[in-house]
Amino acid sequence: MPPPLAKPLAPDSAAPETATPGSATPGSATPGSKDSDGGVLAAAYGATSADSGLVPLTLARRAPREDDVEIAIEFCGLCHSDVHAVWGEWGGQAYPLVPGHEIVGTVSRVGSAVTDFAPGDRVGVGCMVDSCRECESCLDGLEQYCENGMTGTYGAVDRRNGGSITQGGYSSSIVVDRRYVLRVPDSLDPAAVAPLLCAGITTFSPLRHFDVEEGDVVGVVGLGGLGHMAVKLAKAMGAKVVVFTTSESKVPAALELGADEVVLSRDEAAMEAANRTIDLIIDTVAAPHDLNPLFRTLRVDGALFQLGLPSEAMPPVNPRALVRRRIAYAGSLIGGIAETQEMLDFCAEHGVVADIEVVRAEQLNEAYDRMVAGDVKYRFVLDTGTLQAPAKEADA
Ligand SMILES: [Zn+2]
Ligand SMILES: [Zn+2]
User: What are phi and psi of 366, to 5 degrees?
Assistant: First the structure.
């Protein structure tokens, strides 16, 4: 699963204690109420410490500046990164923290210099809300690899907004610079689009980088939020798709998603039969696992992209496996803004969305437990319209 997408905080930095834009305070919100400078109070769910779980919070969102787009959030996907951040598993986390970087909603207000978005437009925000805009990566449309560090959608220092801490999409609204706002095609179900903003682009980008096209054979390792998107996207690009899984119980689900074949990776005979059959492997597994048997399924000039970041060491890669077939072992992180838009447009053209289960705010903690247990097909999405009710209860 994706890595910490928030820029790490300096150990001595702390979240602002007053309700400055970007701050979060426990309690309820009256969504839409405006403070004196035109900012809006947003209802949200977030964590107040590593062991608080998710509780109702109030967010003070800034008034849109000239380049800003204010978004009334409708849906936000639940990513494994959110769980790691909320539970403090990546360290250096500032609290309170409102997670969420698979955001879909409609524009409510725009700043004076915004001409490409208007109120009522359906839009999305993914894993970043800013970057330096000046380095080679940013100028190349690879903002996710910004040399000065992109600004994550939550838990990151917002350098252009007074150093406040960014707060994410488990909330009723968000304000984001227009350069980091995506256009969501109207033809797609807005709830099922949300996971495309992280899980979708994370798998689309390496598929595109490898120029996957009709006739290619793509292997997908792991069948979670990322893996199921990799299957759908690779199929839509015209590839034959082979899913590698350790679990026989996932075979029917993989075939249902459109996989042409499923290989049980613990079955040595099946792995031997897959020798030299694959062009590109998208490996989404975040637990340590041995890549060498997978390399043997690749053809000459094949590549393996690892997207998951195991917290423990992986078994060593055997260089012999790489040199014998000129195999590339690569990594990849989400995608740039232009590529994310290209992905959304591609999904509209091919009717691709995520398979989702919509949850209410008060189900978030249970959803986290189920996500960790792998008990979701394949992505939870929060209906942010349910945020207000629990917040009122928490006030009592
Ligand atoms: Zn994510
Ligand atoms: Zn940059």
Answer: -65, -40
Can you tell me the distance from the alpha carbon of 172 to that of 168, in angstroms, rounded to the nearest whole number? 10
Query: What is the rounded average pLDDT for all residues in the chain?
Result: 90
Encoded tokens for 389: 């009710």
Token pair in block for residue 18: 């007053």
CA of 307 to the centre of ligand 2 (A): 22
pLDDT for the residue numbered 388: 72
- How far does the centroid of ligand 2 lie from the alpha carbon of residue 211, in Å? 25
Residue 389 has pLDDT above 80, yes or no: no
* Ligand nearest to C-alpha 76: 1
pLDDT in tens, 129-166: 999 999 999 999 999 999 999 999 999 999 999 999 99
Closest to 55 in 3D by CA, of 44, 67, 39, 71: 44
Identical topology for domains 41-198+336-341+353-386 and 200-331: no
Which ligand is nearest the CA of 179, by number?
2
- Do 143 and 336 contact (CB within 8 A), yes or no? yes
Task: Quote the ligand 1 centre to 51 CA distance (angstroms).
Answer: 21
7 CA to centre of ligand 1 in angstroms: 14
* Distance between CA atoms of residues 171 and 31, nearest Å: 10
Report CA(112)–ligand 1 centroid distance (Å): 31
| Domain 200-331 homologous superfamily, CATH | NAD(P)-binding Rossmann-like Domain (3.40.50.720)
Kindly indicate the confidence band of residue 9, based on its pLDDT and cuts at 50, 70 and 90.
very low
Ligand nearest to the Cα of 147, by number: 2
Within 10 A of 278 (CB to CB), how many other CB atoms are there? 26
Residue with tokens 């990546």: 90
120 backbone dihedrals φ, ψ, rounded to 5°? 100, -20
Host H or E run for residue 328: strand 328-331
- Quote the CATH superfamily of domain 41-198+336-341+353-386: Medium-chain alcohol dehydrogenases, catalytic domain (3.90.180.10)
Ligand 2 mean position to 179 CA, how many Å?
A: 13
Which ligand has its closest atom nearest to the C-alpha of 2? Answer: 1
